[in-house]
Specification:
Layout lengths: L1 E4 L3 H6 L6 E6 L9 H7 L26 H10 E7 L15 E4 L12 E6 L6 E4 L22 H11 L5 E4 L6 H9 L2 E5 L3 H25 L1
Helix pairs in contact: 4-5
């Protein structure tokens, strides 16, 4: 079962009992001023990127502030384990952990101002892990995904996370659903999932993207069965 709500994640989390989710995999705003206009001006596809897909960014200013302490308190209250993208921006809210995750993407980010990697805090008491997957800002390489969010992460990243940090029967929470990559990967993995997205434009685009993916997957399963 996968569900998505056009709702403020704080409102949703306050309605939950303690440890309602087995794992929260979240990508909150970092507070660094990202927005669709800035992303498009920095990363337009060129002839070099033969696999470029359309860019369909929606929404507006959403990354001017990072979540406050209450957000992290609620997140830790309602989930048993957490993976938090942008953990380096929230270090003062997080406990020490050995299990950080590094997404290395520098192969396609040379000569741009995009980061060579992204860091995620992990509450798991296990060795730090590296996901090596090139991914340009507009998703042209190794992606094959239409971009609807300027900080969109690939489905492959979430699939990798669920394979290593989730198990059958786990219930997954994403407080900032955005493009819905986390939801698609959970659906493909057969995991229970709930995502929250406060922006109506992003929510509508995510719903469209998920409906198209699930319909395509169901058609494939029907034809192959």
């Amino acid at each position: 079962m996968t569900e998505a709500y056009n709702i403020d994640c704080m409102e949703y989390m306050r309605s939950l009992p303690d440890k309602a989710f087995d794992l929260a995999v979240v990508d909150p705003p970092y507070g660094i001023g990202e927005n669709p206009k800035r992303a498009l001006s920095r990363s337009r596809p060129t002839k070099k990127w033969k696999n470029a897909r359309p860019v369909e960014y929606v929404g507006g200013e959403w990354d001017n502030e990072r979540p406050n302490r209450e957000y992290f308190s609620e997140l830790f209250r309602v989930s048993k384990n957490q993976i938090i993208w942008g953990g380096n921006y929230f270090a003062n809210f997080l406990k020490p952990s050995m299990g950080w995750i590094v997404w290395y993407k520098a192969g396609q980010n040379q000569n741009t101002d995009f980061s060579d990697c992204e860091l995620a805090f992990s509450s798991f008491n296990k060795a730090a892990k590296l996901f090596d997957y090139p991914w340009l800002g507009f998703g042209a390489v190794n992606a094959g995904e239409v971009r609807i969010h300027n900080t969109q992460k690939p489905v492959a990243l979430y699939a990798w996370i669920y394979q290593r940090y989730a198990k059958a029967g786990d219930k997954i929470l994403d407080t900032h659903l955005g493009s819905g990559s986390s939801r698609i990967a959970a659906y493909d993995a057969g995991l229970d999932f709930v995502g929250c997205e406060i922006d109506k434009d992003y929510f509508d685009k995510e719903e469209q993207r998920f409906a198209e993916h699930s319909a395509q997957l169901n058609l494939f399963l029907t034809e192959s069965g």
